[in-house]
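Dear all,

This email documents one entry for the complex benchmark we are building for the journal club exercise. For each entry we list the sequence lines for every component of the assembly. Then comes the predicted three-dimensional structure of the complex as a token string, followed by one or two observations. Please use this as the template for your own entries, and keep the labels exactly as they appear.
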Amino acid sequence: MIELKNVTKKFGQLEAVHNLSLCLEKGKITMFIGPSGCGKTTTLKMINRLIEPDEGDILVNGESIFTQEPVALRRSIGYVIQDVGLFPHYSVFDNIALVPRLLKWDEKRIQTRVDELLDLVTLNASYGKKYPLQLSGGEQQRVGLARALAADPDILLMDEPFGAIDPINRSKLQDSFLEIQETIQKTIIFVTHDINEAITLGDRIAIMNAGHLVQYDEPNEILQNPKDDFVEHLLGADRNLKALSLEKIRDYLDEDAYLTVAPGTNPEQIKQKLRTANRKLALAVDENGILQGRYNLEPSSTQADGEKLSYDGQPVVMSRNNNLIEALSMMLETGENQLPVVTSKGKLRGVIKLTQIFAKVEAAKAEKNI
Amino acid sequence: MSVVNYFSKNTSMIWSALEQHFALFAISIIVAIVIGIALSILITDEGREKLARVVIAISGAALSVPSIAIIALTFIFVGIGATPAIIALVIYSIVPILFNATSGLSSVDQKIIEAGKGMGFTKSQILWKIKFPLALPVIIAGIRNTATINIGTATIAAVIGGGGLGDLIYIGLKLNRGEIIFIGSFLTALLAICVDALFALLEKTITPKGLNAMRS
């Protein structure tokens, strides 16, 4: 747990952070958001002492960070910045190995650790030999995350890490980031200026303005009870719709609405099975649980039995950490009313159904009416 | 044919002039590299950005001071001989090396330095593992330029008794014999071209691999 106590930082006349006190929970993602110059990045950089506060104290697990050597402190905290800051003259492997080498791990342990991390951020082991300039922005950001995690720090500071990435890749990165956090359970301080990102990723959101902490709460609470006009304005006019974006697909998974079959099963057999089970959807899954395709049983006037089986070898899928808005818009785009949900490695976890999203909207409506 | 003639009769004299010239160049450039790079590291240290800018401006302007002026000034203060010639060459060579090294070191992306700092690099690790390797191509390019200028300027050092190929040129001028002037100038140019080619090779091998990596 990280505790900030009456922290103040001035740059000349400008008070960048004013008397800030808050507790950041262990193992959770805390998002800092606000307009530029609100003090969010300054706050982040005070935690690894890149900036020294003028007043106040910062405690990590009850111990003041000012009793530690800055260099040792920084090696114990992961740090990711917007433009990644990968060393262009080092290979991906050497970039990830930086902190372990500073800490003088033996090379064998480093090798194992780098392989493990590349796997965690879903990059092929062959990426180790590449150089940063050979990677796309998204790939660089994954390497940046792996590098920050290398020495297995408890705390991760992330300063607008996805800020320079295009929207499509950003949402992919956010998904895999959440999936990674599920495994690593780090205490993460994440600075952003994107309210959607704050809502999607945050366990808690700290809203700052002109050096002051305006509101600090769970996303749901902030959406429902914005403290003042500033927060309301920051959330935007569609904050009720945004509330739906807080709902993750993983909480609405249906594991019963479909049948699984081995790839290459006889279509007639699949048809029979679906009819007997009274289902419309069969998903082809290989021996590793990886989704290979989908069969839809659809009404057809040309078939003698009135139904035809269609096959899609590259079905549209959702990730477990996508939210209901994303699922809804994908359904509108594809015309499907149920979509398979898979992990980042392609393993089938269930399906998300349109009817469930509607049920959630109805429930929210009912809540409002009370 | 008088060139071949003169050359065959004075081979050992010409050879020793070439050796002297190379010694003038080698000694002065090594001293200039050491002083120039040490100074540039000192002034590009964190918190001295202003000083670095001033030095870049001054050394940029100093590049236009003619070599003969520096040699004349050295002569006034130190006298004649090989040592004053070397001192003059060192002074003349420090400026472009310092200029390039300072601009190279201060143009390393701040984001990369900050990332290093945030990960727990010490000051000297930031210098030797980040700033220096990234600035190295620019530093070497500066040394390469300076080396060719240095070899040319060393001929003028003959005026104050520095020896080297400049002697041949002066003898030729005094005796009004074109073939001697030609041999002196030709060997100077040849030496400069060889040294330049050597540095070009060094530049290529020393540039960190990742900086050449094209996106594929």
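Observations: DSSP finds ten helices and no strands in chain B. Residues 2-208 of chain B form a domain with the MetI-like fold fold (CATH 1.10.3720.10).
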